[in-house]
Amino acid sequence: MRMFRSSLQKFLNYRNYRIQNRMSHSNGAEKYVTWSKEELIAKLLNYESGQQIQCNPISTTKTTVASITCDTNTNFKKKPNKKSPRPFDMSKYSKRHIALKVAYFGWNYHGFATNADEQKFPTIEGHLHSALLRSRMISDPAECNFSKCGRTDKGVSSLGQVIALDVRSNLPRDSSHVLPTISMNDNTLNKQDEQDEQDNVKSEPKQIEEIPYIETLNRLLPDDIRIIAWASVNPDFNARHNCRFRHYKYFFVKGNLDIDLMRDAANRFLGTHDFRNFCKIDGAKQIDNFERTILHVGIDQVRDQQNFSQTEEFYVFDLKGTAFLWHQVRCMMAILFLVGQKLEEPSIVNDLLDIKKTPARPIYNMASELPLVLYDCQYDNLKWYYGRDDNMLNTISKLYKHIYEQWYIHATKSLLFSTLLNDLGSISLKKNVHPGQELQNFTTNIEQTLKELVSSEIGMSSGNLSNIITSGGGKELRVRNYVKISNRETCDSVESKNEKYKGKRIKLE
């Protein structure tokens, strides 16, 4: 009996040993069977936090996680969420005053100057501001010392508009090219910035690459707006006030225009004159000085016409002046068109420049805005850069290729129009008139082609509609009986417009 009990005890001990040994080598799941939900959560949190904290496996009391012996509220740290980008700190960078030469094709825009509704009426300046903001070159268009050489009208283009503004720079604050750094509190750099500056001085000097202004902005601008070059200018440089002269060009088709008469009239613009009869007067501006100086005029045939219709001759009105009034060039061109069509004598220019003889502007239509381009703006001692020194050739090559692509698109469109125009122009009138049929309302020779008919001096005159006035850009205006400029009604005088605006302003106040 004793032997049996002894054997039984040994068997039980051996079994317990095997059970304990099996549990110690198992996956550990059995020991958590008796744990409460709160204890399991606490253990899991401790495991994720990487801390080895012993929990009581025997306790089966339902308690909150906060009362469990392994305190997880103080030791566990949640994994941080994906960090949101930090706001760009412009104060960490220096600033410099630069000028930018801008080219744009304005027929898709409502002028250069920005307006209140850029979505509905997009402007060149609006797109420039957007690109400058997106590239973090400025923080506020109203606080970047922005100036522009001119305000081109809706539809007018430019190949050399100039703007100036303060932009972000990579250069150190002690560079002679950057603007003085001013703190809002004590006009000094903060301690961290001071330490950074000291570290830069102690370290070996290294070449600092400036921000690639041209490449950066051109990536963000529409295809028909390009930055051509940039220049480093003095802090007091103003794109408008420092300009020596503006250079405009106006392209037109010769057609039946008398170029010699137009040249005679254009030469009378030279010198300093009162151009109030060659502009649009805005009472809100309260302008009382309309004297402007014309430095150069010329009307020349466009030399490179390989991409134009072979049947048309393009000419350009070339004009340079110190400054221009609102719509001045288009008004000048409108009078030149009347002279070229022999509707006015070249002396009409002298009459309109004589304020005593013509104190207020006669009513006449301006020339089209499409062919007008602000070709260039000239400054003294301004060195233009067409890219960074280390990448200049690549930058200017990309610019050329981009302009070539745009030219290719429009040249192809022009070729399609020219092809159809030439096909229609070669149509014989005689072949399209049935025997015995007369051309109603037309006095012409049916032996002509359609192009000869349209281009003839008689043109498509009908009844008393004997004059077709060219206004440029392919636009024409039919009139029954042409009235000479000297016999037309006039607009309100400058003094009258200014007084009317003052009266409206007083009523509103």
Short description:
This protein is α+β, with helices and mostly antiparallel strands and 509 residues long.
In words, what does this structure look like?
It is a single chain. The protein is an alpha+beta fold. Among the domains are: 2-67, no CATH class; 425-487, no CATH class. Helices cover 29% and strands 17% of the residues. It has eleven helices and eleven strands. It has helices at residues 2-24, 37-49, 124-134, 191-202, 213-220, 259-267, 328-340, 348-353, 392-425, 450-455, 494-508, and strands at 94-104, 147-148, 157-169, 225-232, 245-253, 271-274, 291-301, 314-321, 372-378, 467-472, 475-479. The strands form two sheets. Strands 1, 2, 3, 4, 5, 6, 7, 8 and 9 form a nine-stranded mixed β-sheet that branches. A hairpin with a 2-residue loop joins strand 10 and strand 11. Helix 6 packs across helix 7. It is elongated, with a radius of gyration of 40 Å. Mean pLDDT is 82; it is low at 57-74, 183-189 and 458-465. Residues 176-205 are annotated as: Disordered. Residues 265-380 form the Pseudouridine synthase I TruA alpha/beta domain. Belongs to the tRNA pseudouridine synthase TruA family. Keywords: Isomerase, Nucleus, tRNA processing.
Q: What is the secondary structure topology, with strand pairs?
A:
Blueprint: H1 2-24, H2 37-49, E1 94-104, H3 124-134, E2 147-148, E3 157-169, H4 191-202, H5 213-220, E4 225-232, E5 245-253, H6 259-267, E6 271-274, E7 291-301, E8 314-321, H7 328-340, H8 348-353, E9 372-378, H9 392-425, H10 450-455, E10 467-472, E11 475-479, H11 494-508
Parallel strand pairs: 3-9
Antiparallel strand pairs: 1-3, 1-4, 2-3, 5-8, 5-9, 6-7, 7-8, 10-11
Helix pairs in contact: 6-7
